[in-house]
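Quick question, first post here. What does this chain look like in 3D?
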Amino acid sequence: MTLTERKKTYSKSYRDFDSEDTYRVNESDTYSFHSDDSGIHIDNDWERKWDDGQTDEEHHEYSSARDILNSVAKIFNDLGKLGE
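> Answer (accepted):
Ran it through. Tokens below.
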């Protein structure tokens, strides 16, 4: 049973290219923070959608103290890059 759950999604859109064409890419990175009877853990769902129909997805679960701290550090590092 989840006692507390919060989600935060970061999105960005950009152009990418290869030798054949230029593509519009939409990326989203969603972090779900859970606190329940089993402890604290973070789920990370990452998705990249290309305008040619291709989709890339990854899912990560962080439950150890080291993984949670590394994940939070990555979030703050990525937030700093948003202003660039």
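The mean pLDDT is 86.
The chain has one helix and four strands.
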